[in-house]
Amino acid sequence: MQQERGQDAGGLEVQRLFPKARWARVGWGAAGLFILGFAFAQPAIRPSREITLTAQSVPLSAVDPTLDRVGSLRFLGGLAIQSPDDGFGGLSGLSLEERNGEIRMIAVTDQGDKVTGRVIFADGRLIGMDSAAIEPLQNLEGRPVSGKLLGDAESVSRLTDGRILVGFERRHRIWAYGPGLTGPAHPFETPRALQDAPSNGGLESLASFPDERVIAITEQMRTAAGNFAAFLLQGGAWASVEWTGSAPGFEPSDAAVLPDGDLLVLERLWSPLAPLDIRSRIVRVKGASVKPGAVLQGEVLAELRAPLIVENFEGIAALRAAGGAAHILIVSDDNFNGAQRTLLLAFELSEAQAAPQKR
Predict the structure, then answer these.
(1) What is the DSSP string of 171-229?
(2) Which of 74, 66, 69 is nearest to 350 (CA)?
(3) d(C-alpha 308, C-alpha 58), whole Å
(4) CB distance 231 to 191 below 8 Å
(5) What is the dihedral of CA 77, 80, 81, 82, to 10 degrees?
(6) Is 33 inside a domain boundary?
(7) How many domains would you assign to the chain?
(8) pLDDT tens digits for range 51-66
(9) Domain presence at residue 216
(10) Which residues, in sequence order, are CB contacts of 182 under 8 Å at separation 6+?
(11) Rounded to whole angstroms, how far apart are CA atoms 83 and 1?
(12) Peptide bond into 187 cis (omega under 30)
């Protein structure tokens, strides 16, 4: 793979999470060879294709199907989405675009594909999806990205000039694509310190501001202070910032920028120990506070936890609705696991609504 050049991120101190003993390096090397072999053993890359989706309405609460509010958000409907195409799933990043009165979704998967479709609202409610397609992401040479090792796309964000950035894990990098996430990919300056991130704990979050700032937040890379390592592209150079989780156990899984310029961070807590604990939070950060060297924290707008609907939510996007309110959509990654679901939930944020939940 072509190696991208990156800039140092302003003296960021990070904790290396990999053991340094010789035996441990041998162990990690063997594990790496296993993963590499698995990546090359992936099924043959399939062509771009249209797919059929079925979408079933889901309530915010299984206990009270009439519930339509959580924290500062009003629930606008949810969908459990399925497809007979076994390449559908693993949605790990989300972007929305309104064109000609229609809302188009672009998502990336952790198998190196992009999934597109039309998101359908009626009377202010999310009711369905159609016109869906899957297409492999392209590499720098214009060929399909191949295998989990090279194709683990986890985040996506649209720049003001129409280009779309994609953040990849395992081989940590950011690539830029044309409008509509069209290839081939082009190298995008990537913080050099990102190479110290855990293989499966890199760029889960990318978000672009109207003033051309770009923020990238890692999922598991920690700073010397114990916060999540993050990076801010401003004025053509990357600088270090830090993300403070809203509570112990919560990790950032995606980010988006509201129409008013504030930052939204989607957080996830996943504890497989009995009893299973799955939660997601949407946190709002003042856009003006996102600057080089900042230690960022925000206000919790909403938390999804049982008996509310829960899943492995990994994508968030926002846009301004016709009436002026901000709409927020989140999507879950089913990990291509039949025990999990691909959920798409829609919410409305209005400044007139209730104050954010206490942290």
Answers:
(1) TTEEEEEETTTEEEEEEE---GGGGGS-TTSSEEEEEE-TTS-EEEEEEEEEBTTSSEE
(2) 74
(3) 11
(4) yes
(5) -160
(6) no
(7) 1
(8) 999 999 999 999 999 9
(9) yes
(10) none
(11) 32
(12) no
Residue 103 lies in a domain: yes
| pLDDT tops 90 at residue 88 | yes
Q: Which amino acid, one-letter code, is at 179?
A: P
Amino acid at site 97: E
Output the CA–CA distances (angstroms, integers) from residue 123 to 61, 76, 78, in the order listed. 21, 10, 14
CA angle, 278 as apex, 243 and 310 as ends, to 5°? 105
pTM of the full predicted structure?
0.86
Name the region of 65 (left: φ>0; alpha: ψ -120 to 50; beta: rest). Answer: alpha
What percent of the chain lies above the pLDDT cut of 90? 75
* Segment 304-314 mean pLDDT: 97
- Hey, what's the torsion of the CAs at 273, 278, 284, 290, to 10 degrees? 40
Confidence of residue 27 (pLDDT cuts 50, 70, 90): very low
Tell me which amino acid residue 196 is: D
Per-residue confidence (pLDDT) for residue 351, from 0 to 100: 63
| Boundaries of domain holding 220 | 51-349
Tokens of 198: 């855990």
Cα separation, 124 vs 77, in Å, equals: 9
Separation between Cα atoms, residue 277 and residue 306, nearest integer Å: 9
CB atoms within 10 A of CB 3: 8
Above 70 in pLDDT, residue 221?
A: yes
Place of tokens 């190479």: 195
Nearest alpha carbon to residue 307 among 57, 56, 65, 55: 65
Would residue 45 count as lying in a domain? no
CATH number at residue 201: 2.120.10
What values do phi and psi take at 225, rounded to 5?
A: -85, -5
Tell me the residue length of the chain.
359
What is the SS3 assignment for 22?
helix
The distance from CA 324 to its chain's CA centroid, rounded to whole angstroms, is 25
Neighbours of 52 (CB within 10 A): 11
Q: What is the H or E stretch that residue 112 is in?
A: none
Answer for the pair 55, 80: CB distance below 8 angstroms, yes or no.
yes
| DSSP calls for 58-99 | E-SBSS-TT--EETTEEEEEEEEEE-SSTT---EEEEEEEEE
User: Letter for the amino acid at 260?
Assistant: D
